[in-house]
Amino acid sequence: LTGFKILLDAHGVMHGPKEECVSALKKGCLLAIAPGGVREALFSDEMYTIIWGNRKGFAQVAIDAKVPIIPMFTQNVREGVRTLGGIKILRSLYERIRLPIVPLYGGFPVKLRTFIGEPIPYEPNITAEELTAKTKAALQALIEKHQKIPGNIFRALMERFQTQKKDD
Fold this sequence. Notes:
Elements: H1 4-10, H2 18-26, H3 37-43, H4 57-65, E1 72-75, H5 77-80, E2 81-83, H6 88-97, E3 104-106, E4 113-116, H7 128-146, H8 153-158
Antiparallel strand pairs: 1-4, 2-3
Helix pairs in contact: 2-4, 4-7
């Protein structure tokens, strides 16, 4: 799309590679990395199952840069926009050609709240697999604490009108 690269550059969006991510972290920048990527965005559902597959590059980047990983979770994120990713032929098509041609619907004005978990500190002797498992467990704990499962669009909309403060 015309102008899209300029927009991404203005917001500091990068698409890797790992060396560029490590360099940015060593300079003191923060990176937001979505290990599930497009696959998780398109094919996850209201059950909030983590779909990372064997992805562990984010963990290797953190190890190489000697930085902690800070897990984050946004409550109701899957209620704001839904996909028809549950249709098996669309998933199969995506896996073959890697084009995100899954219909979206929604844009619902649900209550979104982002929760920041406890940092997972850098450990010099940890493997990327072990760090990935720790990160996944930390993210799953945030989901279990802050998300009512299954997610529900109506409930997420009604949360906009709650006035009492929550202790979380």
